[in-house]
Amino acid sequence: MLKIKQLAVAVGKKEILHDINMTIGTGETHVLFGPNGSGKTTLLAALMGFPKYRIVRGSITFQGKDITGLSLDERARLGIGMSFQRPPVVRGVKMSDMVAACLKGRGDAKTIAKLAKQTDMEDFLDREINYGFSGGEIKRSEMMQLLAQKPKLALLDEPESGVDLENIVLIGELINELLEKHCPIPDRKCMGLIITHTGHILDYVNARTGYVMCDGRISCQGDPHEILQTIKESGYGSCVNCLSRRHLNV
Amino acid sequence: MSEIKSSESYRKKAKAAAAKPAAFGEDIDLSTYLTSAEEQPYQPDPEQLPAQAREHMLEAGVVLDDTSQRSGTYIQMDNTPVHSSIRGDGVEVIPISQALKKYDWLSDYWWQAVAVDTDKYTANVELNRGDGYFIRALAGHKTVFPVQACLYLAKARLAQNVHNIVIAEEGSELDIITGCTTASREDPGLHMGVSEFYIKRGAKVTFTMIHSWNPAVAVRPRTGIIVEEDGLFLSNYVLMKPIYSLQMYPSARCVGKNATVRYNSILVAGKGSSLDVGSRVFLEAKGAKTEIISRAITTGGDIIARGFIDGGAPEVKGHLECRGLILNSGGMIHAIPELKGNLAGIDLSHEAAVGKIAEEEVEYLMARGLTRTEATATIVRGFLRVDIQGLPPMLGAEIDRTVEASEKEVM
To answer: Is the pLDDT of residue A85 over 50?
Structure first.
């Protein structure tokens, strides 16, 4: 289980996230909607433990352990993994090396080849990570790394952005594989938190709970499809208004 | 090497240049070094060389315990050749002193790719001849295994003088590993090595040089390469061990149509090391091509990484890439890429980047579960990995082994 309690996160001196509360049960997939700049990526980065994102209040509990003070790599080794929306290029480091590092000895060249086939990355194993990759290739590369990493909590930052229709089907399948959607609900162990701006990913991946983030706050929580329908009909503006009303207690 | 034939004019020019400083690099005071060393005994079986020497040579890529994977071997200690041998036909590996006696025509190659009066170091090599290797691949012959050569500095404070000539006759293929190292890990010394390469029509030479000196040794290689039509010269240089001062700027001339030269350099400068290293190519014939790639890391030392491409013929193509990584403050990397052209239709380009490891990249790897140290090491290892086009797998493995063996020191 992941439990986020009254979390506030600052970048530099500016507080970006305020009073975030969220609970993801084991095996559950949750979706976070929100307009650009609302703080969605900041939340994922803070959960992953990037030093730039400073937790100023509140706590994060993962699998019963308070991880608020743990470093980025400690959290990764505990089982938190993230797919990046815009990962950096790492010159000289090959995809195969990175996947081997993600596997941490849990697989060999055959495992890597299998993952490459699954993610349609067979021609990329000798390529430098993200160097000259297209949008779809970046997403598949991220999914390949996460599948190798086998996290217990997968944080997916806009997995559908910049991906063409052909690739989005595959990305959806890979996310379902990662989140163990093929297993009966009680048997699923991997939790997922997916950021989406457009909601397209919900055509391919089922989620249990949805949230809307506006101005660094969670404005509402509920059925993800209902939330998406509201956003489609009324836009994020209605969420902002709703949040403003609640803050003003009107 | 008193019997060798060389014209008096070379000696005259050398005498005139005996005090001429090099165009680049610290001026080394030659008077502080010894000019002669005791002759070393010839050793027909290189496995019988002292264990410590063999161990040091191995660090420089020279394998003596089992030479079955080598087409030939040449070992020079100080200024004396102590071993030369070949396995099979089609290639010659002998001391240059013997070669000059054996072949009258060799004087036609003597000081043709490097000018004797380039500076005081070339002049000194001519004036204090200390031997060197002569490696020749016969026309049409393709060596299966590389030829290896070791230039070993045994005597403290010695100025080692070396003059090598490599000839790849028409249509031949030759791979060479040269390892340079010292007996002592602390005694000062000076290595001055002239190497002249002649790549004939359609020939291909891969030359891999691994330097493993010590923090008190100064090194002044002087290398010239002449590549004829459809010839290929591929140079790989690896320096990952400490050195006091290194300055070299090998110069290749592509004189035949479609001649190709590629340089790859991996340089690491620790505290106290000063490197001024570059590669220079003159594209003098139609369709000639070059690629110069260097990777430089400072962990506290200074590196000047030069590169120069002169596109002086139609349809030539050249690319120069220099990347520098600063791992410790206190070190310096100065990249100086230069391109020159005066014809329409030539294609010359360069890219240079110097900086520290991007924190964003380290964190990206840490998000996959690597510790900061592991992430940094992975990035450094990747940085040093130069995928060398056309490199025989065996030489690639040799370079990887050298890089891996030195990684811990770098980190």
So the answer is: yes
Give pTM, 2 decimals: 0.83
Q: Is A102 on the interface with B (CB under 8 A)?
A: yes
Ranking A5-19, B95-109, B234-248, B374-388 by mean pLDDT, the lowest is B374-388
Number of residues assigned to chain A: 250
Task: Check residue A109 and give its pLDDT.
Answer: 87
Nearest CA in chain A to B365: A98
- What pLDDT, on a 0 to 100 scale, did the predictor assign at position A115? 93
Residue B3 lies in a domain: no
Tell me how far apart the terminal alpha carbons of chain A are, to the nearest angstrom.
34
Domain hosting B411: range is 357-411
Within 10 angstroms of residue A188's Cβ, the number of other Cβ atoms is 18
Task: Select from B9, B11, B29 the least CA-distant residue to B19.
Answer: B29
Residues in chain B, how many? 411
Q: Do B382 and A90 touch (CB under 8 A)?
A: yes
Asked if the interface predicted TM-score (ipTM) of this complex is over 0.90, the answer is yes
Give the Cα separation of B289 and B319 in Å (integer). 9
When divided into structural domains, chain A yields a total of 1
Q: What angle do CA A173, A176, A177 make, to 5 degrees?
A: 85
Judgement on whether residues B323 and B375 belong to the same structural domain of the protein: no
On whether both B200 and B84 belong to a single domain, the answer is yes
Is A198 inside a domain boundary? yes
